[in-house]
Amino acid sequence: MTLSRRKTLALMGGGFIVAAGGAAALAVTRTPNSALAPWTAAGGYSDPRMNALSYAILAPNPHNRQPWLVDLRRDDEVTLHVDTDRLLPHTDPFNRQIVVGLGCFLELMTLAAAQQGYGVELDLFPDGEDPSGLDTRRVAVARFVQGVEVPAHDLFAHVMQRRSLKEPYDTARPVDPGVLADVIAAAERTQVNGTVAPGDIAALREISHVALRIEIETPHTYKESVDLFRIGSREVEANPDGIDFSGPAFEAMALTGAFSREAALDQSSMAYRGGLKAVFENADTAMGHIWQVTPANTRTDQINAGRDWLRLNLATTRAGLGMQPLSQGLQEYPEMSDIYKDLHARFAPDGGTVQMFARIGYGPEVGQSPRWPLERKILEG
Asked: Which residues pair with 272 in a beta bridge?
């Protein structure tokens, strides 16, 4: 997660960054190049499966946990497993959001395979599924089939520019309803709706506030996120997953002690108060919202939600829009139950499960998010 200068100042609570010199200055200006290398490596493999997977690992996923593991030991197949060490038990107690992320992975793999003329046949959860949680059973078997007529999709052209845009949006630039309709039309497997009406935006901004406050003020859910903070380039290089706080401002704050995991957890600290203010202000720049509903909440529904969510993210990129998931209100832990019920009453009054909810708007360009290299995601022997 890269924050703007305005948000950085908010996080500091008005404090000052002390100028660094010598080795400290080098640390402040250092870029986590190896953590960004998978973006450059994408598309550089001769094996069609590896080539498709090199794009799939760039897919959006909760807290950037990158929970995928793949087995390539059978010819022309990719077997997908979940890395059970990368779950989010407090904010995602049934692993629903993790499965949505795996759906994003599978859809991006499928789009990338189509660019090389390969169809992908998916067998989801062939060993059965458990609605209470994920385990070591196979998530999917993907069979690569050459020679079938697979139209390449224009969404793929936007893969390298796709981001989850967590910066403030331009509140002077409304989103045209026609643009919103074009984005929604990218979904193929789930029901997607949205709004850019000012009254709806105001109401959904307020709901987002409440949900964010609940997650941050609930100790066990907030600590789950803070434990995944990667503060500074060294931490990002060592663990290119989780929540990225790299860049000169955060490097300097870490060196001077202005920002740390301990400070982020201390509700009396400037880091905590400023961070809370920053996320609220971010939600307040929403210029529209979209949401996604599936008929039920099976694991296949969740995979389908992820597949469409990836397509929606690419469609917003194509339209020049930013999109940021606001998943807090859809999380299934007890403290969030009232907001969860409210959002379902609003978005799925006739039944079904609201899988995703996001703000949209026009915002700045941001950098790539860190990734583990593909080779670290391949199961051996």
From this structure: none
What confidence category does residue 14 fall into, taking pLDDT thresholds of 50, 70 and 90? Answer: very low
What are 274-305's pLDDT values in tens digits?
889 999 999 999 999 999 999 999 999 999 99
DSSP string, 334-358: GGGHHHHHHHHHHH-TTS-EEEEEE
Phi (first) and psi of residue 120, to 5 degrees: -125, 120
Which two structure tokens, joined as six digits, stand for 311?
A: 């397509």
Q: What are the residues facing 350 on neighbouring strands? A: none
User: pLDDT category, 272, cuts 50, 70, 90?
Assistant: very high
pTM over 0.70: yes
Predicted local confidence at residue 381, as pLDDT: 64
Distance CA 294, CA 6 (A): 37
pLDDT (0 to 100) of residue 151: 73
Q: Are 55 and 42 in contact (CB under 8 A)?
A: yes
**Which residue has 């039944």 as its token pair?**
351
- d(C-alpha 256, C-alpha 271), whole Å: 13
Q: What is the distance, to the nearest Å, from the Cα of residue 235 to the centroid of all Cα atoms in its chain?
A: 19
The closest alpha carbon to 142, from 81, 189, 65, belongs to 81
Location of structure tokens 């920053």 = 278
Residue 320 DSSP class: T
Question: Which of 333, 358, 15, 372 has its CA nearest to residue 169?
Answer: 358
For residues 361 and 287, is the Cβ–Cβ distance under 8 A?
A: yes
Residue 378 gets which letter from DSSP? Answer: B
Q: In the numeric block, which tokens belong to residue 306?
A: 């992820």
- Residues 117 and 331: their CA atoms lie apart, in Å, by 38
Is-contact 297 182, C-beta < 8 A?
A: no
Q: Whose structure tokens read 């030991």?
A: 73
Average pLDDT over residues 358-375: 97
Residues 125/299, Cβ–Cβ less than 8 Å: yes
